[in-house]
Amino acid sequence: MNKTLRKAVIAGNWKMNKNRKEAQALITELKPLVKDATCDVVICVPFTNLETALRETEGTNIKVGAENVHFAASGAYTGEISADMLTEMGVEYVIIGHSERRQYFGETDETVNLRTKAALEAGMTVILCVGEMLADRENGITEELVALQTKVALKDVTKEQLSRVIIAYEPVWAIGTGKTATADQAQEVCAVIRNVIANVYDKEAADAMTIQYGGSMNAGNAEELLSKPDVDGGLIGGAALKAQDFSVIVKAATNG
Ligand code: PGA
Predict the structure, then answer these.
(1) Nearest C-alpha to atom 7 of ligand 1 is from which residue?
(2) Among this protein's residues, is 92 annotated catalytic?
(3) How far apart are CA 223 and CA 215, in angstroms?
(4) What is the pTM of this model?
(5) In the chain, where are the structural domains located?
(6) What pLDDT digit, counting tens, does each position of 97-154 carry?
(7) What is the CATH number of domain 9-255?
């Protein structure tokens, strides 16, 4: 696998953390630390911090993303935000299908697919999350499950749109637990995902697909994970809340 065919992307997932002042302080600290990054750098922040993040990152190499988006253009969906609302603000990236959304907010592969299509149709870049629970791994169905999640999430997504999709492989048992998948485990599943893309689309699309690993990636383990041929970046939770740690991960990722 030739890593030079695709972009390395390190994305922070702030989850439900940081008020406006804290967000501003974190971005101010982060800017000089990642300004020479050779990979793409994205910070996905709570809706309430989007405006602050866009303003603070203007003219820098840091891109801003949301943590979710609804599939309808508008309407009676209390508490939701549409893709057009995000793009109008200047938000380019969005995380879709994070395991916390699936686990606590009833997201299914089908709603993940609807949200993905809506975001792509609005011109956004999607960070699409897939990953198995511990029980799935113990039952030996990780590969089948992740392949299925990937296929359903990308149903009716065109090859042209696929160029704006990043897939994040996040084993649920590794998220926020301090328990990282080994680099070999991460590589194994990222390679399965790339194979799914090759089968559903073609080899060219598979070669160009950025696949991230996520789940307790940190300053200490990033380099080894990112050295694997099919691991092209990271989706970072806890370590994205500390500018120093996040910047070490950014430095470990090289753009092909
Ligand atoms: P973590 O979270 O790095 O804190 O494990 C990753 C994620 O949920 O995207």
Answers:
(1) 237
(2) no
(3) 14
(4) 0.97
(5) 9-255
(6) 999 999 999 999 999 999 999 999 999 999 999 999 999 999 999 999 999 999 999 9
(7) 3.20.20.70
